[in-house]
Amino acid sequence: MKYSNTHVTDRAAGPEPRIRVAATSQGFRSALLLAVVVSAYLSIPLVAGGRVLVPSVLTVALAPILMLSVWSRFTTTDAVFMLKISFVLLVSIALSPGYVYLNSKLMALAQLCAGLLVVLLTVRLMQHLGARSVERLLLLLWVSIVVGCVLEIAGITREYSDAFRDWAYGSTDEIYDGDARDTNMVGWPRPKLFSVEPSHVSKLFVIVVNAWLLLRVTWPKTWIAGVATVFMIVVMGSPILVVSIGMTFLIVLWNQRARAGAKVAMVLAMLLVAIYFGFQDGDSPFATVADRLEGINTDPTERDDLGSVEQRTIYPFLVLLDTWSRWPFFGVGIGGKDVVFEHSLVELNEATNAMGKNIVGELGISLGLVGASVFLLLLLKHAHYTGVKRVGLFGILFMMTSLLMGGLVTFRYWGLVAILWGAMALADADSPELAVDRPP
Length: 440
Known about the structure:
The structure is a single chain. The chain has 440 residues and is an all-alpha fold. The chain has 2 domains: 30-129 and 330-388 and 403-440, no CATH class; 134-295, no CATH class. 69% of the residues lie in helices and 2% in strands. It has 19 helices and 2 strands. The chain has helices at residues 6-13, 15-42, 57-70, 76-94, 102-129, 131-153, 158-169, 179-186, 198-215, 219-236, 240-253, 260-278, 285-294, 308-312, 314-326, 337-342, 359-385, 391-403, 411-429; strands at 46-48, 51-54. Strands 1-2 form a two-stranded antiparallel sheet. The longest helix is centred in the first third of the chain and has 28 residues, at 15-42. The chain is globular, with a radius of gyration of 23 Å.
């Protein structure tokens, strides 16, 4: 009796299409994550009649695709979290001054909620991809940043970068034009990598390289991240990158798999780096960063043209203290920059810079002591729900990220938060020694 082997052939061939579909889906999710990060980094606005209608048109366009891709992973608790945040923001608007600016405040509320929604969806997408895939993607991203900076300094891609910036941001009058200042500071025009200004390149690098390290802390990765950061300090001369060194040390020291001796070694290494950093001569790129920090105007009320360092350090906290002396509980309301502009300690030319470039200060100014505290508690609690178990470390890294930039309601800021949040959730999920029960 003869037997047909057709069923054997079919069974053997059966899983292959599924494997191909799975690989295709994984590739699509990787491409989607990369697209979301790049779109938030670029934040290309849609402008009509001199007004910005959509602050990041690519991110908004990707949001429905992102939602459809992770809809099954978006939980009821995620939706409740968004409602709670919206309620806190509405209360801050209702109990704050400046009702004449209600429309702009409601628009800011919508933008912040949209940014937070993108964060949650991106975290779910990263969890769907898995730690290994995300780690490879982040490695590709920060290496691309370093290589892109080298190519732009060499003049190979500068023309294309500048042409893209003129096309994407030319109608907003936000394009950075400090090449002469950069040349005097670091010896060359700092790379912009198709974004508005060099600082955005530094911010993206800081978050991506440290998120990459977070996913799997090893000594080789720690040294690679450290060397890459030092190289970027040389290239960019930005104090923002000094924060990256602090983040890297915190990540390693907080790693529960590291032995006590290794942690002591990291502390000593940090001290040596600080000593080396402090004793550089005037021609060193490290001294350039130190000079920028030492040159902070401690009384910015004397000037009507604040530098970027003042806008990130002294000025926001002066405005914060002044705001809390007037409206301590719920601040000026989300999007209340016009209220601050009217009562600013500095006679600024426009309301855009009224809160400075420091989201820690901006959060306190906008929501007040009570509103900001509730906002942060809700955020940390939900981060724990999504899988972040080292909530203390996440809180510190979140605040350090917020110290780097302004724009509480921007997709650019929340895009960086999403990378950090997702990496932290994946790292803690892959660490059995950190296992704790999730809150109900």
